[in-house]
Amino acid sequence: MPDCVYKMGNLRIVDLTKVLDPKTESRRCHLIRYNTGGPIPDFHTALDLTSHLGTHCECPYHHFEDGKSVGELPLTTFMGRAIYVNIDFLEPNSHITGADLDRACGDRIQEGDIVSVDVGARYRGFNGDCAGTFPCGKCSDEALRLIRITRQSFFEGIQFARVGYRISDIGHAVQEYAESYGYSLVREYVGHGVGRNMHEAPEIPNYGAPGHGPKLLRGMTIAVEPMVNAGTAAIRQMSDGWTVKTRDGKYAAHYENTILITAGEPEILTAPAP
Question: Does one domain contain both 146 and 244?
Protein backbone atom coordinates (compact mmCIF):
# COMPACT_ATOMS: atom_id res chain seq x y z
CA MET A 1 0.00 0.00 0.00
CA PRO A 2 1.50 3.38 -1.01
CA ASP A 3 2.49 5.79 1.76
CA CYS A 4 -0.35 8.15 0.77
CA VAL A 5 -3.10 5.54 1.31
CA TYR A 6 -4.48 4.79 4.78
CA LYS A 7 -7.16 2.54 6.22
CA MET A 8 -9.71 3.78 8.76
CA GLY A 9 -12.26 1.08 9.51
CA ASN A 10 -13.99 0.30 6.20
CA LEU A 11 -12.75 3.51 4.65
CA ARG A 12 -9.78 3.80 2.31
CA ILE A 13 -8.28 7.27 2.69
CA VAL A 14 -5.99 8.73 0.04
CA ASP A 15 -3.86 11.75 0.92
CA LEU A 16 -3.82 13.92 -2.22
CA THR A 17 -1.46 16.55 -0.81
CA LYS A 18 1.03 17.58 -3.47
CA VAL A 19 4.70 17.61 -2.53
CA LEU A 20 6.16 21.05 -3.20
CA ASP A 21 9.21 20.92 -5.43
CA PRO A 22 10.83 24.21 -6.55
CA LYS A 23 12.10 22.41 -9.64
CA THR A 24 8.63 21.66 -10.98
CA GLU A 25 6.49 24.54 -9.70
CA SER A 26 5.50 27.12 -12.29
CA ARG A 27 4.66 29.71 -9.62
CA ARG A 28 7.10 31.28 -7.20
CA CYS A 29 8.52 28.66 -4.87
CA HIS A 30 12.04 29.24 -3.60
CA LEU A 31 14.11 27.83 -0.79
CA ILE A 32 16.69 30.39 0.39
CA ARG A 33 19.46 29.23 2.70
CA TYR A 34 21.49 31.88 4.48
CA ASN A 35 24.03 32.22 7.27
CA THR A 36 23.33 34.57 10.17
CA GLY A 37 26.29 33.47 12.21
CA GLY A 38 29.70 35.00 12.64
CA PRO A 39 32.81 32.89 13.18
CA ILE A 40 30.47 29.98 13.96
CA PRO A 41 28.08 29.41 11.02
CA ASP A 42 24.35 29.55 11.84
CA PHE A 43 22.38 28.53 8.76
CA HIS A 44 18.64 29.11 8.24
CA THR A 45 16.25 28.31 5.41
CA ALA A 46 13.52 30.70 4.24
CA LEU A 47 10.60 29.56 2.10
CA ASP A 48 9.37 32.12 -0.42
CA LEU A 49 5.93 31.15 -1.78
CA THR A 50 3.13 32.68 -3.79
CA SER A 51 -0.56 31.81 -3.51
CA HIS A 52 -2.23 29.15 -5.70
CA LEU A 53 0.65 26.81 -5.00
CA GLY A 54 0.52 23.10 -4.34
CA THR A 55 -2.60 21.59 -2.79
CA HIS A 56 -4.91 24.43 -1.86
CA CYS A 57 -8.55 25.41 -1.71
CA GLU A 58 -10.33 28.28 -3.42
CA CYS A 59 -12.34 29.82 -0.58
CA PRO A 60 -15.01 32.57 -0.85
CA TYR A 61 -12.59 35.10 0.68
CA HIS A 62 -10.48 34.93 -2.48
CA HIS A 63 -13.33 36.32 -4.61
CA PHE A 64 -15.55 38.23 -2.18
CA GLU A 65 -14.42 40.93 0.21
CA ASP A 66 -16.70 39.62 2.97
CA GLY A 67 -16.30 35.93 2.04
CA LYS A 68 -15.20 33.25 4.47
CA SER A 69 -11.56 32.23 4.72
CA VAL A 70 -10.38 28.62 4.81
CA GLY A 71 -10.14 28.77 8.60
CA GLU A 72 -13.80 29.80 8.87
CA LEU A 73 -15.16 26.90 6.83
CA PRO A 74 -16.12 23.64 8.61
CA LEU A 75 -13.83 20.70 8.02
CA THR A 76 -16.69 18.73 6.45
CA THR A 77 -16.62 21.21 3.55
CA PHE A 78 -13.43 19.53 2.37
CA MET A 79 -14.47 15.93 2.97
CA GLY A 80 -16.27 13.55 0.67
CA ARG A 81 -16.14 10.31 -1.23
CA ALA A 82 -14.29 10.21 -4.53
CA ILE A 83 -12.71 7.99 -7.12
CA TYR A 84 -8.91 7.99 -6.88
CA VAL A 85 -7.48 8.29 -10.38
CA ASN A 86 -3.80 7.62 -11.00
CA ILE A 87 -2.43 9.90 -13.74
CA ASP A 88 1.28 9.47 -13.08
CA PHE A 89 1.76 8.69 -16.78
CA LEU A 90 1.48 12.45 -17.46
CA GLU A 91 4.45 14.79 -17.53
CA PRO A 92 4.68 17.26 -14.61
CA ASN A 93 2.55 20.41 -15.11
CA SER A 94 0.65 18.84 -18.01
CA HIS A 95 -2.98 19.74 -18.61
CA ILE A 96 -5.39 16.88 -17.83
CA THR A 97 -7.72 16.08 -20.73
CA GLY A 98 -10.84 13.96 -21.01
CA ALA A 99 -8.82 11.36 -22.90
CA ASP A 100 -6.37 11.21 -19.98
CA LEU A 101 -9.20 10.52 -17.54
CA ASP A 102 -10.61 7.83 -19.85
CA ARG A 103 -7.21 6.18 -19.93
CA ALA A 104 -6.79 6.38 -16.15
CA CYS A 105 -10.29 5.19 -15.26
CA GLY A 106 -10.48 2.37 -17.75
CA ASP A 107 -13.87 1.00 -18.71
CA ARG A 108 -15.69 1.79 -15.46
CA ILE A 109 -18.84 2.70 -17.39
CA GLN A 110 -19.48 0.88 -20.62
CA GLU A 111 -21.97 1.03 -23.44
CA GLY A 112 -25.16 -0.69 -22.30
CA ASP A 113 -24.70 -0.01 -18.58
CA ILE A 114 -27.33 1.80 -16.56
CA VAL A 115 -26.08 4.44 -14.13
CA SER A 116 -27.76 5.69 -10.97
CA VAL A 117 -27.11 9.34 -10.10
CA ASP A 118 -28.06 10.32 -6.53
CA VAL A 119 -27.89 14.05 -5.76
CA GLY A 120 -28.26 15.97 -2.51
CA ALA A 121 -28.40 19.74 -2.12
CA ARG A 122 -28.51 22.10 0.85
CA TYR A 123 -30.16 25.53 0.57
CA ARG A 124 -30.74 28.02 3.38
CA GLY A 125 -30.32 25.35 6.01
CA PHE A 126 -32.59 22.73 4.43
CA ASN A 127 -31.80 19.64 2.34
CA GLY A 128 -33.17 18.08 -0.80
CA ASP A 129 -32.52 14.56 -2.11
CA CYS A 130 -33.23 13.03 -5.50
CA ALA A 131 -31.97 10.26 -7.77
CA GLY A 132 -32.54 8.75 -11.16
CA THR A 133 -31.19 5.88 -13.25
CA PHE A 134 -30.06 6.55 -16.82
CA PRO A 135 -29.00 4.42 -19.79
CA CYS A 136 -25.42 4.71 -21.04
CA GLY A 137 -25.60 4.69 -24.80
CA LYS A 138 -27.66 1.91 -26.34
CA CYS A 139 -29.13 -0.35 -23.65
CA SER A 140 -31.11 -3.57 -23.78
CA ASP A 141 -34.90 -3.54 -23.66
CA GLU A 142 -34.60 -5.37 -20.33
CA ALA A 143 -32.55 -2.55 -18.80
CA LEU A 144 -34.82 0.19 -20.18
CA ARG A 145 -37.88 -1.61 -18.87
CA LEU A 146 -36.38 -1.80 -15.37
CA ILE A 147 -35.62 1.95 -15.42
CA ARG A 148 -39.16 2.73 -16.55
CA ILE A 149 -40.87 0.50 -13.96
CA THR A 150 -38.65 1.78 -11.14
CA ARG A 151 -39.55 5.37 -11.99
CA GLN A 152 -43.25 4.61 -12.20
CA SER A 153 -43.18 2.73 -8.89
CA PHE A 154 -42.27 6.05 -7.24
CA PHE A 155 -45.38 7.71 -8.67
CA GLU A 156 -47.52 4.73 -7.67
CA GLY A 157 -46.23 5.10 -4.13
CA ILE A 158 -46.77 8.82 -3.72
CA GLN A 159 -50.44 8.46 -4.57
CA PHE A 160 -50.63 7.53 -0.88
CA ALA A 161 -48.41 10.39 0.30
CA ARG A 162 -51.39 12.28 1.63
CA VAL A 163 -52.64 13.43 5.00
CA GLY A 164 -54.20 10.54 6.92
CA TYR A 165 -52.37 7.70 5.21
CA ARG A 166 -49.54 5.86 6.97
CA ILE A 167 -45.89 5.49 5.96
CA SER A 168 -46.25 1.83 5.00
CA ASP A 169 -49.05 2.66 2.53
CA ILE A 170 -46.44 4.27 0.28
CA GLY A 171 -44.06 1.31 0.39
CA HIS A 172 -46.88 -1.19 -0.10
CA ALA A 173 -47.93 0.54 -3.33
CA VAL A 174 -44.32 0.63 -4.56
CA GLN A 175 -43.88 -3.07 -3.82
CA GLU A 176 -47.15 -4.18 -5.42
CA TYR A 177 -46.37 -2.32 -8.63
CA ALA A 178 -42.73 -3.43 -8.99
CA GLU A 179 -43.41 -7.05 -8.07
CA SER A 180 -46.27 -7.25 -10.58
CA TYR A 181 -43.54 -7.04 -13.23
CA GLY A 182 -41.44 -9.77 -11.62
CA TYR A 183 -38.99 -7.42 -9.89
CA SER A 184 -37.92 -7.29 -6.24
CA LEU A 185 -37.31 -4.46 -3.75
CA VAL A 186 -34.08 -3.91 -1.84
CA ARG A 187 -34.75 -4.23 1.90
CA GLU A 188 -31.58 -2.80 3.39
CA TYR A 189 -32.02 0.77 2.08
CA VAL A 190 -35.15 2.85 2.51
CA GLY A 191 -36.61 6.32 2.00
CA HIS A 192 -36.47 8.84 4.81
CA GLY A 193 -37.51 12.19 6.18
CA VAL A 194 -35.65 15.24 4.85
CA GLY A 195 -35.19 18.59 6.58
CA ARG A 196 -32.39 20.25 8.49
CA ASN A 197 -30.54 16.95 8.02
CA MET A 198 -30.36 14.90 4.84
CA HIS A 199 -31.60 11.75 6.59
CA GLU A 200 -34.23 12.14 9.27
CA ALA A 201 -37.09 10.11 10.72
CA PRO A 202 -39.29 8.48 9.65
CA GLU A 203 -37.82 5.65 7.61
CA ILE A 204 -39.92 4.82 4.54
CA PRO A 205 -39.43 1.21 3.37
CA ASN A 206 -40.35 0.31 -0.20
CA TYR A 207 -42.19 -2.84 0.92
CA GLY A 208 -44.53 -4.15 3.59
CA ALA A 209 -48.19 -4.39 4.54
CA PRO A 210 -50.31 -1.22 4.44
CA GLY A 211 -51.68 0.57 7.49
CA HIS A 212 -48.50 0.68 9.59
CA GLY A 213 -46.09 3.34 10.79
CA PRO A 214 -46.59 7.04 11.56
CA LYS A 215 -49.49 8.90 10.00
CA LEU A 216 -48.59 11.42 7.33
CA LEU A 217 -49.16 15.01 8.42
CA ARG A 218 -49.36 18.24 6.46
CA GLY A 219 -45.95 19.93 6.27
CA MET A 220 -43.87 16.74 6.41
CA THR A 221 -41.07 16.49 3.83
CA ILE A 222 -39.96 12.99 2.89
CA ALA A 223 -37.78 11.27 0.29
CA VAL A 224 -39.40 8.30 -1.41
CA GLU A 225 -36.78 6.20 -3.23
CA PRO A 226 -37.61 2.80 -4.71
CA MET A 227 -34.55 0.59 -5.28
CA VAL A 228 -35.63 -2.17 -7.61
CA ASN A 229 -33.71 -5.31 -8.62
CA ALA A 230 -34.31 -7.20 -11.83
CA GLY A 231 -33.59 -10.46 -9.99
CA THR A 232 -33.73 -11.30 -6.30
CA ALA A 233 -33.73 -8.68 -3.51
CA ALA A 234 -30.38 -9.90 -2.14
CA ILE A 235 -27.45 -7.47 -2.22
CA ARG A 236 -23.87 -7.44 -0.95
CA GLN A 237 -21.68 -4.58 0.20
CA MET A 238 -18.16 -4.44 -1.16
CA SER A 239 -14.98 -4.07 0.90
CA ASP A 240 -14.78 -0.30 0.28
CA GLY A 241 -17.75 0.11 2.62
CA TRP A 242 -19.73 2.00 -0.01
CA THR A 243 -20.30 0.05 -3.23
CA VAL A 244 -23.34 -2.24 -3.23
CA LYS A 245 -24.05 -4.92 -5.84
CA THR A 246 -26.88 -7.35 -6.47
CA ARG A 247 -25.93 -10.85 -5.36
CA ASP A 248 -27.15 -12.43 -8.58
CA GLY A 249 -25.35 -9.88 -10.77
CA LYS A 250 -28.54 -8.63 -12.43
CA TYR A 251 -29.51 -5.02 -13.04
CA ALA A 252 -30.73 -2.69 -10.30
CA ALA A 253 -32.33 0.75 -10.64
CA HIS A 254 -33.04 3.64 -8.27
CA TYR A 255 -35.43 6.58 -8.41
CA GLU A 256 -36.05 9.28 -5.80
CA ASN A 257 -37.56 12.67 -5.15
CA THR A 258 -38.20 14.82 -2.10
CA ILE A 259 -41.89 15.54 -1.61
CA LEU A 260 -44.00 17.75 0.61
CA ILE A 261 -47.18 16.50 2.27
CA THR A 262 -49.88 19.12 1.64
CA ALA A 263 -53.62 19.40 2.30
CA GLY A 264 -54.15 17.79 -1.11
CA GLU A 265 -51.82 16.09 -3.57
CA PRO A 266 -48.15 15.74 -2.62
CA GLU A 267 -45.83 18.37 -4.04
CA ILE A 268 -42.57 17.21 -5.61
CA LEU A 269 -39.83 19.57 -4.42
CA THR A 270 -37.03 18.16 -6.59
CA ALA A 271 -37.37 18.21 -10.37
CA PRO A 272 -38.28 14.65 -11.45
CA ALA A 273 -35.75 12.97 -13.71
CA PRO A 274 -37.22 12.00 -17.11
Answer: yes
pLDDT tens digit sequence for 117-148: 899 988 899 999 999 999 999 999 999 999 99
The residue range of the domain holding 90 is 5-105
Is residue 166 within 8 A of residue 203, CB to CB? The reply is no
Q: Do 97 and 118 belong together in one domain?
A: no
> Is the pTM above the cut of 0.70?
no
Same domain, 88 and 138: no
Same-domain check for residues 96 and 195: no
Of 255, 159, 165, 175, give the one whose Cα is nearest residue 209: 175
From the CA atom positions of the chain, what is the Rg in Å? 26
Roughly how many angstroms between the first and final C-alpha of the chain, as a whole number?
Answer: 43
The predicted-structure confidence for 186-233, as pLDDT tens digits, reads as follows 999 999 999 999 999 999 999 999 999 999 999 999 999 999 999 999
**Which of 40, 44, 20, 19 shows the shortest CA–CA distance to 30?**
20
